[in-house]
């Protein structure tokens, strides 16, 4: 027997399909939303829709941006010969927050995972290789997570780039195994970056 009406059930189902939202949280959010003033709900829905419509991948580094080229790629004061490869835009934000990295980034939007059926073609690797062919790059720092997927991806990238003669380095393993970069404090991030070794 359905406890709630069709509309409430649909809202709960939609919310529960989001990452990190369990059934109970979805119910709580659904009732919270239903009790909000109508204009607040419209604003929330409009914000979601316009973010989805206006945010896309930077044409250079593939991070999420409102522009064709993100502010980091467009900044001529940064070192464009130094590219840090990260798994997602949240990891980029974590390094950006330290304010100490003067290079640019490349966002893969995932990591290679044979178990989940995610292959090299499913992440933004072709775009990275394209950049290396067309830009003057001296070093690629692989800053994928130290999870199995992150390490697999790092090894794969290293093998791809080695023949080009461009230096490939890996951030130090000061980052705990399986740790998501976004949860690690700035000091640890900087230590990992400074202690990077050649692959
Ligand atoms: Zn960019």
End-to-end separation in angstroms reads: 59 Å
Instruction: Outline the low-pLDDT stretches.
Output: none
User: How many domains?
Assistant: 2
Structural class based on helices, strands and sheet pairing: alpha/beta
Give the CATH class of the largest domain: Alpha Beta
Provide structural commentary.
By secondary structure, the protein is of the alpha/beta class. Helices cover 42% and strands 14% of the residues. The protein has 7 helices and 7 strands, in the order αααβββαβαβαβαβ. The chain has helices at residues 6-16, 23-35, 38-54, 89-98, 125-134, 148-161, 186-194; strands spanning 56-57, 64-65, 79-86, 103-107, 139-142, 167-170, 197-198. Helix 4 (89-98) links the parallel strand 3 and strand 4 (103-107). The protein is elongated. The mean pLDDT is 90.
